[in-house]
Amino acid sequence: MFLQFMIDSRLADLQQATPGLRLKADPADLEHYGRDWTRRWAPKPLAIVLPGSVDEVQSVVRWANRHHVAIVPSGGRTGLSGGAVAAHGEVVLSLERMNKVLEFDAVDRTLTVQAGMPLEAVHNAASEHRLIYPVDFASRGSCSIGGNIATNAGGIRVIRYGGTREWIAGLKVVTGAGDVLDLNRGLIKNSSGYDFRQLMIGSEGTLGIVVEATLRLTDPPLPTNVMLLALPSFDVLMRVFSAFRARMQLEAFEFFTEHALCHVLAGGAQRPFEMSHPYYVVTEFAVGDEAMEAASMEAFEFCMENGWVEDGVISQSAAQAEQLWHLREGITESLAPYKPYKNDISVRISTMPAFLEEIQALLGHEYPHFEVVWFGHIGDGNLHINVLKPDDMENAEFVRQCERVTELLAETLTRHGGSISAEHGIGLVKKPYLVSTRSTAEIALMRGVKRVFDPNGILNPGKVFDEG
Ligand code: MLT
Ligand code: ZN
Predict the structure, then answer these.
(1) pLDDT at 4 over 90
(2) What distance in angstroms lies between residue 424's CA and the mean position of ligand 2's atoms?
(3) 187-245, pLDDT tens digit by residue?
(4) 3-94 has which CATH code?
(5) Please, what is the Cα angle at 38 between 35 and 44, to 5 degrees?
(6) Where in the chain is the domain with CATH 3.30.43.10?
(7) Nearest Cα to 243, choosing from 301, 282, 195, 179?
């Protein structure tokens, strides 16, 4: 292996400058680390580096500047926008060896971790102290906290707790220039100028490599119940949401269609109701006392009386709650074999009814020949629209047709003041549509900011926007 690195003098120099650094360049490794869950680009990295310390990350960044080699920072690579794809001879810098808890502070209620720690391990570490890190989503076992921060990941509990951005008390990053920045240091109050911590969150590895994070923790929620509702039409969705939100403390409010359910059922899950229904909602809510339980029943009955809900089931045990959640959380995996083209869009909740009416008509008209699966975080104004590739169609042609429709969708989003990426990031997939959500002046400023933090453009080049 060492011989192979010697053939590329740049890698030989890296190994010499950073003797403890682990390098990989087997074809299987290049393939594994060079892609994320998008599967649209053929991975082609130069090599994979696996630093074990902040010093080693800094050394790799300095080397990359010397040799003008691009770096793709890499967490669990569960991203859906191509942010972690390395298809042009980049070095993938995987944080997977930097996966430990560094400190728990009981007074500050913070947990400081290395960036490669999987989200689920963060949850477990918090629960050892009877606290929670409340950001959560289905890929919890595979994604890493550093990747979550780079994307400003959202998930299923944003309605109650907000997204990743709200829970980061401090960040240590290595910038593209090779500087180590210790940002905000866990402070609650800090009005001392620009907040670079927040700038790094959601920057998709284009400004700095997140190496450590100090996470805010909070109390576990009151006991909760999970309810699955069957709805007769899409039009009533926002009414059911308003009825439930007015009466209960919602922890989650997610919807999916019969199409989505069928794909999860094909994997072995049990149909929740005797009959099929066009739409479903899975909602989790606090039931700390009798009044709260009564309120949930009242909301349910109110929706039934109005004909907005046709059926419902409430979890009687933790195992049943998990089964109900699986019907929603299993969707992404069940669709993966169809190479879905994913839209991840958001508008303000108040705008949702008008926006939904418009895009339902648009997509019904533009996608008569494809299966379109709708689901998502309706309580946050965030929809996932997955278009499934027919077996007999070339992927490039399928993507071309979907991109034409995304242009129209993006134009609708602009009119409604929405976003082309609610929580998956821009990466490569949404890059052509960034202009639908951010003004020309904003994008010019983003380019300027990138030049300040990454003067030689070595960090994740070509992601989010093209440097120009
Ligand atoms: C989800 O909500 O399940 C995730 O954002 C993943 C996806 O959209 O496929
Ligand atoms: Zn989502």
Answers:
(1) no
(2) 7
(3) 999 999 999 999 999 999 999 999 999 999 999 999 999 999 999 999 999 999 999 99
(4) 3.30.43.10
(5) 30
(6) 3-94
(7) 301
Residues with CB under 6 A from ligand 1: 80, 137-138, 332, 344, 376, 384
Residue length, the chain?
468
User: Residue 239 corresponds to which tokens in the numbers above?
Assistant: 């009414």
40: CB partners within 8 A, 6+ apart? 82, 395, 399, 428, 429
pLDDT at 467: 87
Q: State the span(s) of the chain assigned CATH 3.30.70.2740.
A: 339-441
Residue 342 has pLDDT above 90, yes or no: yes
Q: Are 214 and 186 in contact (CB under 8 A)?
A: yes
Res 3: pLDDT? 52
Which pLDDT belongs to residue 468?
Answer: 73
- For a mutational test of ligand 1's pocket, the pick from 36, 137, 374, 387, i.e. the residue with the most ligand atoms closer than 8 A to its C-beta, is 137
Confidence check: pLDDT of 113 > 70: yes
> Could you give the CA distance from residue 89 to residue 72 in angstroms, rounded to a whole number?
10
Tell me which of 2.20.25.90, 3.30.70.2190, 3.30.70.360, 3.60.150.10 is the CATH number of domain 224-331: 3.30.70.2190
Fold of the domain built from segment(s) 339-441: Alpha-Beta Plaits (3.30.70)
- Going from the Cα of 163 to the center of ligand 2, the distance in angstroms, rounded, reads 11
Instruction: Give the CATH fold of the 101-216 domain.
Output: 3.30.465
* Interatomic CA distance for residues 194 and 393, integer angstroms: 49
From the CA of 155, how far away is ligand 2's center (Å)? 5
pLDDT per residue as tens digits for the range 362-374: 999 999 999 999 9
Count helices and strands in the chain by DSSP H and E runs: 16, 16
Give the position, in ligand 1's atom list, of the atom nearest the Cα of 331: 3
